[in-house]
């Protein structure tokens, strides 16, 4: 989750501080800004071609004195250089390291002196390090290709396709398969494990036929109804049909 902060320039910090003391009537000043190298000796001017190790700013508010110390290693803005594949200083910190570090130290001191006015506010110079670009780690690995399926795996995959075609025709059990397979192959077959390669290829070459013949084989056929036999007299002869004509008188 990204945490957002309000950022202003150092001039905004100075303006807020000045308005605050103008309102209260307090004394306000920044009596000194100092830099030091790795030797720990503080200087009021930095003339070395190398960046300072730290900067210190003292802020006076009323009777109080507030000091802010910023370390170069903690605040320097960096960027990733693709050519050297290393982190290097960004343009502002590379060209003006003493000024940039002093502004960070001043912001620290002003925030101490004016906590009610500057609490939660940060300068863009202080947040330069938050934008430091860290390259993604490069992980070396070997590409492993999937092994080719074996002959038995290929056969099983084909049989599964046939089973799905038969299921589309209503075959959902071994019992029904034992009925449908003979209708498909024209010979007695009780299960798909009895299919040879020629059977498998022939069935897969006509998927619609497999589904349709499976459906036909599993559809109950209506039973034939035999006509009723004519009633037989006791002497074994069927009675003659009555004639509509009246009997003739002798």
What is the count of distinct domains? 2
Helix count, DSSP H or I runs of 4 or more residues: 9
Compressed to H and E, one letter per element, the order equals EHEEEEHEEHHHEHHHH
Separation of the first and last Cα atoms: 123 Å
Largest sheet: 4 strands, antiparallel
The Rg value, from CA coordinates, equals 49 Å
The coarse overall form would be rod-shaped
Structural class: alpha+beta
**Quick check: average pLDDT?**
83
Number of strands: 8
Instruction: Point out poorly predicted stretches.
Output: none
Strand content: 15-25%
Helix content: 25-40%
Strand order of the largest sheet: 3-2-4-5
Q: What is the oligomer described by this structure?
A: single chain
Short description:
Helices cover 38% and strands 16% of the residues. With 250 residues, the protein is of the alpha+beta class. The radius of gyration is 49 Å and the shape is rod-shaped.
